[in-house]
# Entry
Amino acid sequence: MSYAIDRIESAVAEARAKGTERGVKFEQSFDVAVNFRKKELDISKPENRLNQELVLPNPLIPPPKVCAFGDGEFAEKATDAGAERIISKDDIPRIGEEKRERKSLAKSYDFFIAAVDAMPLIGRYLGQALGSRGKMPRPFPPQADLSAIVNQYHRTVRIRMRNTPTFHVKVGHITMSDREIADNIVAVLNFVQSKGFSERVSNVMVKTTMGPAVQVST
# Structure
């Protein structure tokens, strides 16, 4: 199943119009939902449940929140790169022992990065809280270009299918142009195609936070 960029852009424009006609007073985001035909996608099989990060062509607004684990040079570089929070190795056991705090940490940040030497502590004290949400951090050496890495995360979404044959991800913001949002949707659909799932798609819907869903026509 293929979708032309102009039809995707048209659906975005329609979703924008319908989402703003209700007088919503806050700036809304755009989500895309990809729905699969139940009879053609058996999600009881692990290989059919998508769970992967995807880098979009255009940054998200506001950007996903990134938290970093590490000390010294790694912590300094993560701060300069724009990570919203830095957690030292000494603080990892303390957070891990507080159920409410480790749960809050896992929910509050979209992505996690870590210094290589912090990973054993993360696995021991925070592995369950982060791993169950698919948020275990990627380890990086001190010489890594954390600015490029954090910048990439600001354009990254996690495509994750749970108990139903569908997934939805954020693809834009009301302040972005229709074409920028459409380009991000194209990236999502290209990802679906790369997994061999495109022929199993039932429909693709786009909507604003408070607006009705608009189907993308083929």
